[in-house]
Task: inverse folding
């Protein structure tokens, strides 16, 4: 679980420049400047690259916070 | 390259000096393609890169926007839906025969509009165009193995469009065969991503396109010379064992791989690449072998030929000296890994490639590698006369030494200077000379495409190109100068002279011509000292009153006339307007 959060944090840092690490766990599309539709797709792609998984676009589109994405990944790994 | 890596590269370069501006023109959402184009451009230019992308869904309007932008170059990606939205999987217009026929009828008109817009864009910056890289949707009613008349007509219209666009000055078209080698057709399209986000490419294909576009927009400086071994490389067989008539390179002799290689070298020589030979052989037998009239590589295309029994690295050292170029501008090809290693150890930067005549596939790969290393988009007159002028150089140098008096030697050269004035940016040779000349370079300034074009938008801007020939033959255009005039004030902003034309009074004739043509009492030279432009400082010291400090130098026509040595040769002034 800790490994998932550490990796997901790195994915966020890759996509969003100058991000305060403390800000990441509570990040949402509303709180994070630059989390627009383009960076949402960038984030999806970088997470897929970092985790070696394929995520469903529709489900990811609904995941608009760090917590929701972490939950999506946990569900994906539990399913596998 | 992965998206995460590309984002990292962009970030690394975000604060590393002056930025460059590019434009990506496409009808789909640019997404990862934009990320990869920026990252590949940052890597190539070692600078931050801003990328403008225009508006979604309208490639024609994006072409107009790009033409009005201050970018250094544009990458135009046209997919089938950009030619007609009905040719995309996001369309709901139907796949009836009426629709297919209507697309056929409308396509040519759409392509004509796009061609006009690409032409306009290319008037402002270098443009790279990629034709449709994704398949057409399965619209036609026939079996998938059959080519339908619709698709044949659409592809024929597209082929004519691409050929026309490729002939526009300043436009490069990406080669579909090369793209297919790097990005197989089966791994290009991501239909789900296209439907979900209107971005149609897999990340792998987007990266291949971006890499190819940057390669074409900002090509590496081509290598200048190729040194080849002879035995079991230029031809099959060992000359000393089988004799002049025993070596072979033809299909009939099962040695066609060597024949292909000879054809490559002949083709490279025609484009101005210097071809030399380093062979462990008796010079006499090599001379006789080059006398064979059935060689695909004529002897006239080869200079110099170093045949002997010393180490190859020493032969190559002599060839580099004769060519007056550095090892990193040269490729050495030999069948022996040992010889390649010996040369690589002695000449840092030289590119060593093995010729494996027993494997035709490896030879074709080697030929493709050479095309990549020596590739150039355009040929100039200077490319064609390079070998001729190099062959003449040692004779000229010997006669100069023998005369012991530089002035007398110059007086006897029977030189002709062609000084051409223009206010247009259309001179690739001058642009390249300014961007590659180090020694006689007024201030070391380099120009991007947009800076080059900006110069000619200044009021009173002009350029001068100087061509030279003497009794040893032509050197082509060997000097370029940029300046601008405002009333009586004349400034020279950039000025370069190829080192091949040193000690020929080219710089004196050029300045004298500029004074005469512009009829001004003074000229300001935007001089800056660099690590390598000592020849400029020496010239200035000769013509200005006082010592040469860093910064602008004011030269008066009176002072120049007083200090200028007696000039020899004929000067022809022309205007390019």
Result:
């Amino acid at each position: 679980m800790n490994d998932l959060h550490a990796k997901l944090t790195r994915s966020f840092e890759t996509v969003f420049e100058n991000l305060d690490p403390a800000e990441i766990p509570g990040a949402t599309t509303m709180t994070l400047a630059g989390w627009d539709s383009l960076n949402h797709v960038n984030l999806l792609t970088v997470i897929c690259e970092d985790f070696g998984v394929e995520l469903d676009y529709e489900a990811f589109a609904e995941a608009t916070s760090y917590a929701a994405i972490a939950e999506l990944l946990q569900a994906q790994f539990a399913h596998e | 390259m992965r998206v995460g890596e590309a984002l990292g590269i962009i970030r690394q370069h975000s604060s590393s000096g002056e930025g460059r501006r590019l434009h990506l023109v496409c009808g789909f959402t640019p997404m990862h393609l934009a990320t990869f184009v920026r990252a590949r451009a940052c890597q190539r230019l070692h600078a931050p890169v801003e990328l403008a992308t225009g508006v979604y869904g309208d490639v024609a309007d994006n072409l107009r926007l790009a033409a009005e932008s201050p970018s250094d170059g544009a990458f135009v990606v046209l997919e089938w839906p950009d030619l007609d939205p009905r040719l995309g999987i996001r369309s709901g217009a139907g796949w009836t025969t009426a629709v297919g026929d209507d697309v056929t009828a409308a396509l040519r008109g759409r392509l004509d509009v796009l061609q006009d817009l690409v032409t306009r864009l290319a008037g402002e910056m270098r443009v790279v165009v990629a034709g449709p890289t994704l398949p057409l949707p399965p619209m036609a009613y026939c079996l998938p193995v059959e080519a339908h008349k619709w698709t044949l007509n659409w592809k024929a219209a597209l082929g004519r469009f691409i050929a026309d666009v490729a002939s526009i000055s300043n436009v490069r078209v990406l080669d579909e065969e090369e793209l297919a080698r790097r990005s197989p057709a089966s791994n290009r399209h991501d239909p789900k991503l296209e439907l979900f986000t209107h971005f149609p490419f897999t990340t792998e294909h987007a990266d291949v396109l971006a890499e190819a576009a940057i390669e074409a927009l900002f090509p590496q400086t081509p290598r200048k010379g190729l040194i080849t071994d002879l035995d079991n490389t230029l031809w099959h067989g060992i000359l000393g064992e089988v004799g002049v008539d025993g070596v072979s390179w033809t299909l009939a002799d099962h040695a066609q791989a060597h024949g292909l290689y000879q054809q490559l070298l002949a083709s490279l020589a025609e484009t101005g690449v210097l071809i030399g030979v380093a062979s462990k052989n008796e010079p006499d037998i090599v001379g006789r072998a080059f006398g064979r009239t059935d060689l695909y590589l004529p002897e006239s295309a080869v200079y110099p030929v170093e045949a002997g029994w010393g180490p190859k690295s020493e032969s190559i050292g002599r060839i580099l000296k004769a060519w007056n170029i550095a090892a990193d501008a040269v490729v050495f090809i030999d069948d022996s890994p040992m010889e390649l290693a010996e040369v690589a150890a002695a000449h840092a930067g030289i590119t060593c490639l093995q010729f494996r005549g027993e494997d035709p596939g490896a030879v074709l790969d080697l030929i493709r590698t050479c095309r990549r290393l020596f590739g150039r988009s355009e040929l100039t007159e200077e490319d064609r006369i390079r070998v001729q002028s190099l062959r003449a150089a040692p004779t000229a140098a010997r006669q100069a030494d023998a005369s012991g008096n530089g002035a007398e030697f110059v007086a006897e050269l029977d030189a002709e200077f062609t000084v051409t004035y223009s206010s247009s940016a259309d001179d690739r040779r001058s642009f390249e000379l300014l961007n590659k000349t180090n020694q006689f370079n007024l201030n070391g300034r380099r120009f991007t495409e947009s800076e080059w074009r900006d110069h000619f938008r200044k009021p009173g801007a002009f350029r001068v190109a100087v061509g030279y020939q003497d009794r040893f033959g032509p050197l082509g255009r060997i000097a370029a100068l940029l300046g601008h005039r405002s009333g009586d004030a004349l400034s020279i902003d950039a000025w370069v002279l190829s080192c091949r034309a040193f000690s020929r009074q080219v710089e004196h004739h050029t300045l004298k011509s500029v004074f005469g043509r512009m009829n001004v009492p003074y000229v300001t030279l935007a001089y800056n000292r660099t690590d390598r432009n000592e020849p400029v400082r020496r010239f200035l010291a000769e013509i200005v009153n006082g010592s040469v400090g860093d910064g602008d130098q004011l030269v008066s026509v009176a002072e120049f006339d007083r200090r200028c040595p007696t000039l020899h040769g004929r000067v022809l002034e022309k205007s390019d307007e």
